[in-house]
Write a structure and sequence with these properties.
Length: 100
């Protein structure tokens, strides 16, 4: 049930990928690079599309993203890694944790 709720909240994997890629671009355009003070980074994240996406997830999920399709998951892990957003897949829960 939890997976179904997450899927309904996030939409199809490809849509999520596009939204995350767009948000990553916005953050890079805003000048977010490593290293940055945590307060400044958090402030910019709060104003970003990525923050709105994560805020819209069901309570208790926080920055975990559920992607049921292995192809989508591999693609997203690569994209996030290229954008300096480390992401970790947890096979027991089928969650992808995006490190912000």
């Amino acid at each position: 049930r939890r997976g179904l709720r997450l899927k309904a909240a996030l939409g199809p994997g490809k849509v999520l990928e596009e939204r995350l890629r767009s948000a990553r671009g916005q953050l890079l355009d805003a000048g977010i690079t490593h290293p940055r003070p945590h307060r400044e980074l958090l402030d910019r994240l709060r104003r970003s599309e990525l923050s709105q996406l994560l805020d819209g997830m069901p309570k208790g999920v926080e920055n975990h993203v559920h992607l049921p399709a292995m192809g989508d998951r591999r693609f997203l892990l690569r994209e996030l890694a290229q954008g300096d957003y480390p992401a970790y897949y947890h096979p027991a829960t089928y969650h992808l944790r995006i490190a912000l």
